[in-house]
Design goal:
This protein is mainly beta. 3% of the residues lie in helices and 28% in strands. The longest helix is centred in the C-terminal third of the chain and has 6 residues, at 370-375.
Length: 394
């Protein structure tokens, strides 16, 4: 990346594994309006947090607004070349949606757990924070079947506590804050430490506050392991850079809600939670030169819960990579109360599972038994509570 010319050069990179390239380091992204209270990452014996990447001009995730349609009209959208459709039951802010075909979902509090099955002396062992190129070792062959998954990172907004996570946004190098804006619009501002409300940069790492993330605010969640030398691959010189969460098997658990903001207009009231290849935010997530981002070549984005148009109640899940994947299925937007959800990357069965959990029975403990995690891969007939993305081995 040449900051003087705004030009970039790159080379092809091969990857292998049943969940590649999402087995690489990924980041956790949250976009307004969203209220998150817990995040946890687990790993059978070891753990990784997520964020994956290379350079990426993350198609400003809020540019997916659909043309207005009347209630009952058929909506057809093309997502990464795949045509999906559904009947519009949303009549705009203030209207009562027809929920006859809505798939139940719950509401807010954010908790994420990531993990990679491996052997360890105790379920709470934390990997060393210095030394190895990848501080989160992975075991491609294990599915964690006999392992306990240890919590590696945790955030609780209500308690004001965070361990293992770093909260970032895109104001690097502005107003004297850490990071860089070298390269101008071609690269966009680098990552910066996020203020407690997420709306501005901070001079050092802050814990996200216990309040709703407002419209047009985006938070990037990485681990607390700083990139040293080339341990994260290429990163912006002078930028704020932390490792993401790697592993062919990893688990993110979250409790969150998506209350309506009541706002209208471009990108208004369109919350989202998603994962990115960490190289995208570490290089150029919102620059104007697409050659400076690996997003255009399919290095990986996984939309977990995304509202595609203002005020809608459907949370869509979509893979943006090669190949892409998505459907007309959706989760019900959690507007008035929180839901607990798990996102499990399961290397053994070559699938990524999104599952709505039982709010009363599922806790975000320091460890999870293997059978609890394994149960997240089973279909139990609860319509609207799970989604499976099965990937082909490469």
């Amino acid at each position: 990346m040449d900051a003087n010319t705004g030009q970039c050069t790159s080379e092809k990179q091969s990857y292998t594994g049943s969940l590649a390239p999402l087995s690489e380091e990924v980041s956790h992204e949250v976009y307004y309006p969203d209220s998150g209270s817990q995040v946890k990452r687990d790993n059978p014996a070891h753990a990784h947090a997520h964020r994956h990447g290379q350079q990426h001009v993350h198609h400003p995730k809020r540019n997916h607004a659909l043309a207005e349609r009347a209630v009952g009209d058929m909506v057809v959208a093309t997502i990464d070349g795949q045509v999906v459709s559904w009947v519009n039951n949303y009549g705009g802010p203030g209207a009562s949606p027809n929920t006859a075909d809505a798939q139940p979902i719950a509401q807010t509090t954010l908790a994420t757990s990531l993990g990679t099955p491996s052997q360890a002396p105790s379920p709470t062992t934390t990997p060393a924070s210095s030394g190895p190129v990848n501080p989160f070792p992975q075991d491609e062959g294990s599915d964690g079947g006999s392992e306990r998954w240890a919590r590696q990172a945790y955030f609780n907004a209500e308690a004001g506590s965070s361990n293992g996570f770093t909260f970032l946004n895109h104001f690097g190098g502005t107003k004297g804050m850490p990071g860089t804006a070298d390269g101008g619009p071609a690269f966009g501002a680098s990552l910066s430490y996020a203020s407690s409300d997420g709306k501005s940069a901070a001079a050092s790492a802050q814990t996200l506050g216990n309040k709703m993330i407002e419209d047009d605010v985006e938070i990037i969640v990485l681990s607390d392991k700083p990139c040293e030398g080339s341990s994260c691959g290429y990163t912006r010189p002078g930028g704020v850079a932390y490792h993401g969460f790697a592993g062919n098997s990893k688990l993110f658990m979250m409790e969150f809600s998506m209350p309506r903001s009541g706002k209208t207009g471009f990108n208004a009231d369109m919350p989202a939670i998603w994962l990115l290849n960490a190289q995208i935010p570490l290089t150029s997530q919102y620059g104007t030169n697409p050659k400076c981002s690996c997003w255009t070549s399919g290095c990986g984005e996984f939309d977990l819960f995304e509202i595609l148009d203002t005020g809608n109640f459907r949370c869509k899940s979509t893979l943006h990579m090669a190949p892409a994947g998505g459907s007309s299925d959706y989760f019900r937007r959690p507007e008035k109360s929180t839901i607990k959800a798990a996102v499990l990357f399961h290397g053994a069965n070559q699938a990524a599972h999104i599952r709505i959990l039982d709010n009363n029975n599922q806790n975000f403990d320091e460890s999870l038994e293997a059978d609890v995690v394994q149960a997240m891969t089973k279909e139990n007939g609860n319509s609207g509570r799970s989604s499976v993305f099965r990937l082909a081995s490469r």
